[in-house]
């Protein structure tokens, strides 16, 4: 696998995992240019691993503090909020994964989802927001955001976008909504990464460990930088640039579909 391909796939994963744009839409475009088999092995597994490590390292202080003060019976525990918020998508994904793969991974569905949730992001961004920190997200709201996160199983939605949209509608600030969305990705990314590692370890596939190591490293760097830059800019620029980008991307995919 060429270094240029590795770089493209890694950057694409690092950007689309945390920005409120559709990773499915971008991977569709990538698949028309790059080898689909290579893409599935690298992006879906080791690039996800890079993104997982990036968000853990970025929020290492918050996670360390949460672990130090963890109380299984506390509704104020950040870890409990992340766990309860992750359960719905893991359960729904387990039961509907085959249906989604068979019926929803089409270009027109991805295009329409990209446009629809882009418009919804614009509407949510105009709602009233407070300036509370992500730790102020209540246990009830965490579960509700987790339920809405299940919509991310529809290709073209974007996991970060739908969780941010939900938090904005609940009147959290852009930064609070984004931080909680990123933290909520840790259990989800962790399950995806570990399950795919298990699948690889039980298959007879030959893995080029140099390639996948580079994928993981480049994805980690891109993801880490994306999180930092996004959180530093989002209160100033808002979500309108991402809304516009999603609209153009969706229209382009509709053009490809028809």
Your description of this structure?
- The protein is mainly α.
- It has eleven helices and no strands.
- The chain has helices at 3-18, 23-31, 36-58, 60-68, 78-103, 107-125, 139-149, 159-169, 174-201, 209-237, 240-257.
- The relative contact order is 0.20.
Gist?
The protein has 258 residues and is mainly alpha-helical.
Number of strands: 0
Find the structural class using helix and strand composition. Answer: mainly alpha
Largest sheet: none
Parts with pLDDT < 50 across at least 5 consecutive residues: none
Amount of beta strand: under 5%
Please give the share of residues in helix: over 70%
Radius of gyration: 18 Å
SSE succession: HHHHHHHHHHH
Distance between the termini: 32 Å
**Judging from the principal axes of the Cα atoms, what is the shape?**
globular
Instruction: Tell me, rounded to a whole number, the average pLDDT.
Output: 86
| Quaternary structure state of the chains depicted | single chain
How many helix segments? 11
Write the layout of secondary structure elements.
Elements: H1 3-18, H2 23-31, H3 36-58, H4 60-68, H5 78-103, H6 107-125, H7 139-149, H8 159-169, H9 174-201, H10 209-237, H11 240-257
Using brief descriptors, characterize the structure shown.
globular; mainly alpha; 258 residues; 0% strand
């Amino acid at each position: 696998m060429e270094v240029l391909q590795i770089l493209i796939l890694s950057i694409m994963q690092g950007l689309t995992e945390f920005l409120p744009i559709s990773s499915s839409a971008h991977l569709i475009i990538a698949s028309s240019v790059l080898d689909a088999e290579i893409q599935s092995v690298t992006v879906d597994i080791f690039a996800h691993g890079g993104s997982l490590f990036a968000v853990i390292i970025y929020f290492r202080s918050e996670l360390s503090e949460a672990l130090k003060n963890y109380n299984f019976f506390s509704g104020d525990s950040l870890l409990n909020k992340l766990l309860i918020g992750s359960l719905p998508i893991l359960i729904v994904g387990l039961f509907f994964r085959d249906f989604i793969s068979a019926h929803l991974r089409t270009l027109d569905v991805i295009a329409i989802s990209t446009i629809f949730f882009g418009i919804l992001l614009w509407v949510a961004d105009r709602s009233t927001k407070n300036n509370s920190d992500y730790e102020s997200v209540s246990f009830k709201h965490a579960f509700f955001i987790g339920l809405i996160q299940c919509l991310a199983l529809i290709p073209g939605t974007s996991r970060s976008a739908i969780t941010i949209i939900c938090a904005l509608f609940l009147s959290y600030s852009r930064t609070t909504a984004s931080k909680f969305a990123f933290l909520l990705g840790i259990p989800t990314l962790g399950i995806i990464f570990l399950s795919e590692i298990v699948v690889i370890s039980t298959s007879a596939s030959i893995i080029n460990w140099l390639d996948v190591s580079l994928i993981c490293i480049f994805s980690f760097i891109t993801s880490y930088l994306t999180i930092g830059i996004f959180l530093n800019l989002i209160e100033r620029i808002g979500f309108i640039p991402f809304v516009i980008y999603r609209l153009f991307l969706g229209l382009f995919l509709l053009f490809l579909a028809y």
